[in-house]
Design brief:
Blueprint (H helix, E strand, L loop, with lengths): L2 H12 L2 H10 L6 H4 L5 H10 L9 H9 L3 H13 L14 H9 L4 H7 L4 H10 L4 H16 L5 H10 L3 H8 L1
Protein name: FAS-associated death domain protein
GO molecular function, one term: caspase binding
GO biological process, one term: positive regulation of cytokine production
């Protein structure tokens, strides 16, 4: 799988509707209105920009401008890391989205996921952004919150921190399952 496309896909999934609208507005001088209007996701927008060679693996200047304009410094730093290292590397000992701890947490935490995220020091603004992006899907809210925590903590996102936070929220059964 192409690491650059994976990076763009991760950007797309973390964009809110408002941020996507802002990006579409900023692309009006590059993309015809007829082509831009039906765009519903970041992936669709990125596909058009890739097809027109406005962004490429070697030239991400326009993408940097877009991310800077919508004030997504977190995505901008991931992009810079990609450019510097050739691709975004998965930090060591960081929980992988496909790993069992994430699955166990998502299967067992439920409505108290916000309390867990606050224990992990994820700010309320990010939590609210995740809820707004996934208003009717509790599990997806938790998945996105855990991914946001991983991105925010980077190399410091440890499974041990998840277990400590779970215990701090009196979710000892879930913590025990994660340890197993």
């Amino acid at each position: 799988m192409d690491p650059f496309l994976s990076l763009l896909h991760s950007f797309s999934s973390s964009l809110t509707d408002r941020e996507l609208s802002a990006m579409k507005f900023l692309c009006q001088d590059k993309i015809r209105k007829r082509k831009l209007e039906p765009v519903q996701t970041g992936g669709e927008l990125f596909t058009i920009l890739l097809e027109q060679y406005d962004i490429t693996r070697e030239n991400v200047a326009f993408l940097e401008e877009l991310l800077r304009s919508i004030k997504r410094e977190d995505l901008l730093s991931k992009l810079k890391q990609f450019v510097d290292e050739g691709e975004v590397k998965a930090p060591e000992d960081q929980p992988d989205p496909h790993e069992k701890p994430m699955e166990v947490i998502c299967d067992n935490v439920g409505r108290d996921w916000r309390m867990l995220m606050r224990k992990l020091d994820l700010c309320d603004v990010k939590i609210d952004r995740i809820v707004a992006a996934n208003p009717r899907d509790l599990r997806e809210q938790l998945v996105q919150a855990l991914r946001e925590w991983q991105r925010w903590r980077g190399r410091d996102a440890k499974v041990a921190d998840l277990i400590t936070a779970l215990r701090g929220c009196s979710m000892n059964l879930v913590a025990d399952r994660v340890e197993q």
